[in-house]
Amino acid sequence: MEKADLKLKNDPFDVKALVRPLSLFFFFSLMNETKSIHYTIKTIEKLKKLKPGVDIGKMMIKIATELYSKSDTTEVYITKNVGEFWILPLDLELGPWKEFHKRISKKELISLLWGLVIKVPEDDILNALNISQGTHRYRISSALKELGSNTFLLK
Amino acid sequence: MEFIRLKKNKSREMSDFVANHLLFEYARNTLDPERKKAVEAVLESTPELQNEFIKLINGIQYCEKLSETLINDAAIKQIEMQSSQVNFIVNRLRWHQWPLGFRWLVEAGVVALLLVIVLNVLPLNRIIHLNDGNDSQTIVAEVDRKRKPILGEVPEANVERPEFSDEEVKQPTTVAGKDTIPPAKPNSTTTSAPSKPLATTTPNIPTPTTAPTKPAASVAVATPPAAEKTSSKSGAWIYRGQFLVTNAEAVSPKIKDKIKDLGGQKAGEVEIGWLKTPNVYYFHFTVPEAKLGELEALLKDYSTGKLVKEAHPRVMPDGIIRLLFTVEEKAAEVKAETAAPENK
Asked: If you average pLDDT over every residue of chain B, what do you get?
């Protein structure tokens, strides 16, 4: 698994390094531009309150996952303004992701996003989510099969 | 040292179930060669597993695409600068881009909502009546808690407060005795006509020694009916009179007892039948209006006096009347009258 190029420093607090993973995580998990920015700021504010020396990478995953788990994801997707904040790949269609989003469980989605989309080191994910490696990989595998059934890239 | 070589068993074929769960590891190429061969063997022979593998590869490729998503530098700066959620929400609402009429409508709604909240939360009734609270209050009773009880005095709670002020009584707490100094002015009411001069018209009256057991009827002294005044308020009346009896000392307690039987209650500070001056008994009380006839009949038994109804600013409750009269010793009156010309 490729490791993400994240240089998370706690002292001094590096906000820029946190914005991308957090905003991507919330955008792809909530599928709501406004809410994703709101939760990104909220997570950063919480991380700023942590004591110096705390593992920011692990805490970022933990706090963001908690916020997402508590959030209400039943709202209508608002993706009209995508492109203002996010620059999506040209050949990427969000349709399969929306379908996948409706069927998948939150836990599998979390593992998939942190592991394969944002590409955070696996050890940080395991520590932050407090799950075993087998559980994490099983969730990713299950999520990938569900996602792959919606895509037609290899047909 | 020789190692014992164990015989290697014939390798078993991997089941579809196990191969399915190893597909993710196989796709990432993290399996050992032996397991890799086993999974490939199952994949070749199982079309369902091939479809699962295709789905897995599709998912991984889609995730690779998703991971290429970038974020504007402007957006990163904006997130960095937005310290508070309020600013963020306001900015996202794009308030200034709203139609003017709609903005006015929202503003009016917010103001109305605030007004409703303020009016409901603030105790406006207390604020409005803050200044005139002292003027409008009615004092029913006042208790002076700082006042120390004097030895021999009746406790404050048991003392009946006089509802009416007694006329000509300046020291209500003192018990009436024989040495009580009579007040100089007998009646202060301006509407009542002088009654004492009328008593002088009956000079021949038997002395009390001639008939001590039965009080004889005496000449009643009363004000003329012309003295009555009509009052604008209903119930603003007082009944006055002066009765001359023989043996007032014996008659007065009987009248007092009868008044109490009729439901009479003292109106002023002194008791009913208070010894105002020697041989003069003071009656100031309230009684139900229905008992007035009985009371007049009682008084007629002992004297020929008459009660006169006068107007008074004090309004009585419905059905209750107030009476104020004196019962005087007829002999004393005569003596006083007879002594006066001699002095002259």
From this structure: 71
The answer to whether the beta carbons of residues B223 and B243 sit under 8 Å apart is no
Contacts of B62 in chain A (CB under 8 A): 96-97, 147-148, 151, 153
* List of domains in chain A: 15-148 (1.20.140)
A94 touches chain B (CB under 8 A): no
Q: Residues, chain A, total?
A: 155
B-interface mutation test, from A3, A35, A43, A85, most B Cβ less than 10 A away: A85
**Cβ of residue A119 closer than 8 Å to a chain B Cβ:** yes
Based on C-alpha coordinates, what's the Rg of chain B? 55
Q: Do A86 and B69 touch (CB under 8 A)?
A: yes
- Classify each residue of A56-84 as buried b or exposed e, where b means 16 or more C-beta atoms within 10 Å of its C-beta: bbbbbbbbbbebbeebebeeeeebeeeee
Give the gap in angstroms from C-alpha B112 to the nearest C-alpha of chain A. Answer: 29
ipTM: 0.86
Count of CB pairs separated by less than 8 Å, A with B: 119
Which residues contact residue B47 at a Cβ distance below 8 angstroms, ignoring those fewer than 6 apart?
none
Q: Write down how long chain B is.
A: 344
Q: Can you list the pairs that A29-32 forms with residues at least 24 positions away whose Cβ atoms lie under 8 Å?
A: A29/A68, A29/A73, A29/A109, A29/A110, A29/A113, A30/A68, A30/A71, A30/A73, A31/A73, A31/A77, A31/A79, A31/A97, A31/A98, A31/A101, A32/A75, A32/A77, A32/A78
Residue B325 near residue B276 (C-beta atoms within 8 A) = no
pLDDT of residue B296: 85
Cα separation of B206 and B209, whole Å?
8
Type of residue found at B135: D
Residue B289 CB neighbour total at 10 angstroms: 15
Supply the pTM of this predicted model.
0.46
Question: What is the residue type of B22?
Answer: L
Longest Cα–Cα distance of chain B, Å, equals 170
A-chain CB neighbours of B64 within 8 Å are 116
- Residue by residue, DSSP assigns A77-125 as PB-TTTTTSEE--TT--SHHHHHHHHHS-HHHHHHHIIIIIS---HHHH
- The 3-state DSSP class for residue B289 equals helix
8 Å CB contact between A154 and B59? no
User: Is residue A108 over pLDDT 50?
Assistant: yes
Q: Does B88 touch chain A (CB under 8 A)?
A: yes
Mark out the alpha helices in chain B (DSSP H runs): 16-21, 23-27, 33-45, 47-67, 73-81, 85-93, 100-121, 124-128, 133-136, 196-199, 248-261, 292-302, 330-343
Three-state secondary-structure class, residue B247 = coil
Give percent of chain B with pLDDT exceeding 70. Answer: 58
What SS3 state is found at B281? Answer: strand
> How far is the C-alpha of B261 from the C-alpha of B242, rounded, in Å?
21
